[in-house]
Amino acid sequence: MASTSAGPEPAPTPCPDLFDTRFVQDPHPTLASLRRAAPVHFDPGTGLWLISRYADVRRVLLDPVAFVPDNAQHAVDPLPVSALRALARAGFTLPPALANNGGPSHAGLRRLVTRFFNAERVASAVPLVEETARELASALRDQFVRGHLCDVTAQYARPLPCRVMTRVLGLEDVPTAALVTWSDAALELFYGRPPADRQAHLAQQVADFYTWLTDLVDGAAGADGLIGALRGHQLPDGEPLDTPTIVAVCFFVFIAAQATTGQLISTVLRHTLADSDAWARAATDDRFIYAWVEEILRREPPVTTWRRVTAHEVELSGTRLPAGAQLLLMLMGTGSDPDMFDEPERLLPYRQNIRHHLSFGAGRHRCPGASLARTEAAVALRTLARLLPDAVLVEDERAPMLGLLSFRAPLKVVARRR
Known about the structure:
CATH 1.10.630.10
């Protein structure tokens, strides 16, 4: 393929409005068009280059030298003065820690965090996940048998991983409802496109979250769990972590370990409740459950995109990109790339390459909590399918979807008795 220069004008293929309701509701036709006709495509609305083919995205993820993560947590739009003031009053800062860290300190910090999500920790957490799921599902069943509609997102999918996370990370007295609210505010502030007055409101919530995290870290001298481990961690030069870096790690982990997992559970439940055969199998067939969750991760991941910056001039799919080009990796689109997955539009839980998707990333920045997220989603599905065997989805084409730059999931999944 002949190379083309990355000039200032967008390619002729119509570029999607990444925040448009129609794209959020069903992005697959647009993603397919981009993969086919414009695999490296400039979006003038965000200033990002959309990278949509599996091979290109995987190459970027596996080369952190040429494609650096410096922009991973930047706000989509500049924050107004009112929002910046709210954050400044809390001393808010996110120095390089995990997702936005391409430096020498990343490897040690990642190893530390990964210890809390390794195979042994996940296996030991299964009884906790099961107990939490049963407790939440039992409360839903009480409503269900009385004929009430149940929002399984708000009452089950969101609180479950939040409660599990606090125990896995050794946290005590965590205001879980507030943590869910703070996490949602942070995602919308940095990955959404809200109006200025809402940005100011969200910034105050994020500032409250940051203040709470700072107080938590400052009061954790000698503590076990993640914060204690971070306080005892040494950087490559032998220096201890400073408080802002510890808080930055916690800021990322506390959101990633429960908000995106809750989004995954919500998506899994929506697809399964809509399929009576799948719902029946989920109550009895563990092999099916884990494969089904994996297929939904491939086709409908909660983390739909991620960002990178080119460190020097590179070429992707015949397009030359200069140093400093801002890239948006279309993770969701790669899961439906026909060059990688046969019949990608179908959920086929026993496909041979089922785990080859990029929904958890790849390489040194791959999600350290992937195994726990899979386990929580599978246990959540099995538990609810067993306790509510006659549940069905209340179909609503207008059901709201979370539609941020990098996150997509149902905001509400309503079930009723068949």
